[in-house]
Specification:
The protein is built from 5 helices and 4 strands; from the N terminus they run H-E-E-H-H-H-E-E-H. With 137 residues, the chain is of the alpha+beta class. The chain has a 4-stranded antiparallel beta sheet with strand order 1-2-4-3. A hairpin with a 5-residue loop joins strand 3 and strand 4. It is elongated.
């Protein structure tokens, strides 16, 4: 009886972990529309700040950084050619990391939202064709 309870608990924990993994993986996946990829970033303000403007500004900056990190994770596995991913190409071409960094620095939010706690959610837009064109130069 005790062994069966342990197996049921293990199965429940595995199912919960699988659900959490799927939820985080789907959040990192971008939405695609008209050749553009849209990524979502989330940011929280410093709880010690009382000024609303500072709280919102800092939460927006952290949301933009989170969104750019999601873009970086996505493009790391992006295919440049049939068999070559960007991370593999970075090993061969020492100029490529600089090009990627320059491209990421130019990405700006297209939509920002704050909740009642001044947490920010931003949507960042990336043009996939423009990125691949810049990287292949």
């Amino acid at each position: 009886m005790n062994l069966l309870t342990g197996k049921v608990r293990l199965a429940a924990m595995c199912a919960a972990l699988l659900c959490l993994t799927a939820a985080f993986a789907s959040e990192d996946a971008p939405r695609e529309k008209w050749g553009n990829l849209y990524f979502t970033g989330h940011g929280r303000p410093n709880p010690g700040l009382e000024n609303v403007t500072q709280r919102r500004s800092l939460s927006m900056e952290s949301a933009i950084i989170d969104g750019k990190a999601r873009i970086a994770r996505y493009i790391q596995n992006m295919k440049m050619d049939k068999n070559l991913t960007l991370s593999e190409a970075m090993v061969k071409d020492p100029r490529l990391p600089g090009k990627v960094k320059m491209f990421l620095s130019g990405i700006q939010p297209v939509k920002s939202r704050w909740d009642k706690d001044d947490n920010c959610t931003v949507t960042l837009k990336m043009n996939k064709k423009a990125f691949l064109k810049q990287v292949r130069k």
